[in-house]
């Protein structure tokens, strides 16, 4: 079901967590709230859940004004980063807890728990304690518990943040498949650009309490609204005054074209299937170009080679408006992940 957020603001003392935020989250979609730490995304999620009260503005869930409703009246499922499991209860009892609180019949509870444990591939672990599960299994248990009460909206606050990279990758693939099966309106918070781009139907980019851009992963990556979105969603480098993706730069050793920028290769680094070529231009910039192995071998270049750079026609660019040193933007994007 859709979520409508209109004019929501929230302050903690002098700190502005959200500044007049308005966004419509479509029904049945998987939406990511993406941004740097402290940008306001978790605060917005907690306001939707009723765990925080906004200073101003309105929240509607399924067409009902939920602004003043307590969490238990909003019919939302909430999954925390650190599971919040009942350590003394079995997996089965953890999943059943919300249904027991609502005093559902025992047969109904047993059937629903069996169904959910099968859905999250934990049916053989129902009698174990949470401490006997892996981190990924505990997070799947937390998702089953949130889904048990058949929520209108499922909210996840950095659900995979405490897990290692391999398990994160497996779980986000699983979350995407799970969402396609249950079709519940889902909102998840992440600061991981790859996670948002891979999993979400729609991304809301939040920075310093304000929304920078809303759109599909393709929209945001290919048509960034501004410098911040360009820098935050994926690697960037700078050529002249233009921010551009390193894989959208062409490098050549032939005659220079009218818009080409000349330079000298200063470093070549292989990272898996990618070759990163750093080029120092006459203007003092260090520009990063990403090539495939075959493209690099076809060029036949080495350190100290003289080359020419150009932006591939039609590639997304923005004008650099901040004072970041040239050539550091790709490192910043990687660090943000």
UniProtKB/TrEMBL annotation:
Residue segments, region Disordered: 314-337
Query: What SUPFAM superfamilies does the record point to?
Result: MOP-like, P-loop containing nucleoside triphosphate hydrolases
Task: List, alphabetically, the Gene3D superfamilies matched.
Answer: P-loop containing nucleotide triphosphate hydrolases
Q: What GO MF terms are annotated?
A: ATP binding
**Per the database record, which ranges form the ABC transporter domain?**
3-233
Q: Compositional bias (Acidic residues) spans?
A: 328-337
Identify the domain of life: Bacteria
Keywords, ordered alphabetically:
ATP-binding, Nucleotide-binding, Sulfate transport, Translocase, Transport
A Pfam family that the UniProt record links to this protein: ABC_tran
Q: What is this protein identified as?
A: Sulfate ABC transporter ATP-binding protein
């Amino acid at each position: 079901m859709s979520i409508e957020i209109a004019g929501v603001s929230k302050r903690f003392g002098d700190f502005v967590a959200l500044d007049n935020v308005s966004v419509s989250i479509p029904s049945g979609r998987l939406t990511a709230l993406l941004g740097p730490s402290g940008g306001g995304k978790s605060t917005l999620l907690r306001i939707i859940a009723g765990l925080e009260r906004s200073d101003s503005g309105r929240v509607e869930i399924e067409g009902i004004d939920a602004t003043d409703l307590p969490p238990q009246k909003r019919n939302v499922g909430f999954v925390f980063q650190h599971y919040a499991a009942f350590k003394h209860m079995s997996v089965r009892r953890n999943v059943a807890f919300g249904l027991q609180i609502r005093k559902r019949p025992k047969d109904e509870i047993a059937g629903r728990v069996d169904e959910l444990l099968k859905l999250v591939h934990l049916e053989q672990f129902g009698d174990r304690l949470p401490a006997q599960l892996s981190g990924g299994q505990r997070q799947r248990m937390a998702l089953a518990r949130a889904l048990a009460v058949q929520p209108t909206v499922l909210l996840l606050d950095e659900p995979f943040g405490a897990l290692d990279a391999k398990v994160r990758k497996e779980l986000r693939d699983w979350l995407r498949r799970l969402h396609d099966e249950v079709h519940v309106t889902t909102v998840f918070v992440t600061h991981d650009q790859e996670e948002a781009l891979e999993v979400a139907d729609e991304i809301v980019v939040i920075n310093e309490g304000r929304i920078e851009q809303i759109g599909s992963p393709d929209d945001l990556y290919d048509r960034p609204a501004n410098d911040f979105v360009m820098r935050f969603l994926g690697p960037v480098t700078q050529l002249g005054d233009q921010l551009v993706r390193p894989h959208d730069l062409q490098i050549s050793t032939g005659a220079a074209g009218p818009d080409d920028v000349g330079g000298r290769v200063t470093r070549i680094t292989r990272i898996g299937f990618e070759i990163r070529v750093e080029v120092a231009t006459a203007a003092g910039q260090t520009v990063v170009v990403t090539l495939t192995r075959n493209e690099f071998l076809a060029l036949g270049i080495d350190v100290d080679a003289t080359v020419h750079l150009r932006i591939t026609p039609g590639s997304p660019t923005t004008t650099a408006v901040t004072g970041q040193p040239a050539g550091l933007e790709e490192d910043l994007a990687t660090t943000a992940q």
